[in-house]
């Protein structure tokens, strides 16, 4: 089974073997595909500041069984919402929830997984942008073995954050 995220504007680019599934609180009138409101925020959440919204939506997802939800989706689903790639959108939080709960990869359709910012970095400033893929050689150069003991704490924390697996629960209040 393949699973992706995307937006309504890109729906015509999807190959026939993928099944569009709306996970937005409002659905375009022209959209006649599957709808799964379990993975959509509520109107109440949408009116809250981002920090509150994130907390409320993460709480809602935590009450669902990810494996059961995935098994109840149509075959090869593409989870759709309105926002551009890398804009702040709950579909990235849903994707990361599936990734964390099931150990699967849920990329944005048409992009490699590492070209999508973690949910907590998705925002208007990154909307439509492609996250730069790190150079493999540069990754190898910064390892635990070759980092000096004089490394400043801030540099160490930043380096460790690059190696951290994103989580839907990585947000600040």
Q: Could you give a short account of the major beta sheet?
A: 4 strands, parallel
What kind of assembly state do the chains in view correspond to?
single chain
Q: Tell me the number of helical segments per DSSP (H or I, 4 or more residues long).
A: 6
Uncertain residue ranges: 136-151
Radius of gyration: 18 Å
Walk across the major sheet and give the strand order.
1-4-2-3
Average pLDDT, rounded to a whole number, is 80
Shape: globular
* Sequence of secondary-structure elements: EEEHHHEHHH
Number of separate strands: 4
Question: Which structural class do the helices and strands define?
Answer: alpha/beta
Approximate strand percentage: 5-15%
Roughly how much helix do the residues carry, as a percent range? 25-40%
Could you give the distance between the termini?
36 Å
Please provide a brief summary of the model.
By secondary structure, the chain is α/β, with parallel strands linked by helices.
Detailed description of the structure:
The protein is α/β, with parallel strands linked by helices and 173 residues long. It has a four-stranded parallel beta sheet with strand order 1-4-2-3, covered by helices on one side. Helix 2 runs parallel beside helix 4. The radius of gyration is 18 Å and the shape is globular.
């Amino acid at each position: 089974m393949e699973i992706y995220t995307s937006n309504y504007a890109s729906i015509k680019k999807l190959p026939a073997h993928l099944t569009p599934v709306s996970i937005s609180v409002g659905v375009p009138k022209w959209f006649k595909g599957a709808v799964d409101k379990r993975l959509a925020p509520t109107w109440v959440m949408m009116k809250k500041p981002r920090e509150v919204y994130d907390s409320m939506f993460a709480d809602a997802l935590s009450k669902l069984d990810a494996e059961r939800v995935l098994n109840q989706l149509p075959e090869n689903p593409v989870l759709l919402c309105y926002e551009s790639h890398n804009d702040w959108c709950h579909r990235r939080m849903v994707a990361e929830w599936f990734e964390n709960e099931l150990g699967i990869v849920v990329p944005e359709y048409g992009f490699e997984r590492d070209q999508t910012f973690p949910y907590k970095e998705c925002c208007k400033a990154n909307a439509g942008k492609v996250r730069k893929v790190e150079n493999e050689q540069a990754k190898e150069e910064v390892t635990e073995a070759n980092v000096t003991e004089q490394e400043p704490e801030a540099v160490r924390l930043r380096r460790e954050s690059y190696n951290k697996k994103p989580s839907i629960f990585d947000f600040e209040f």
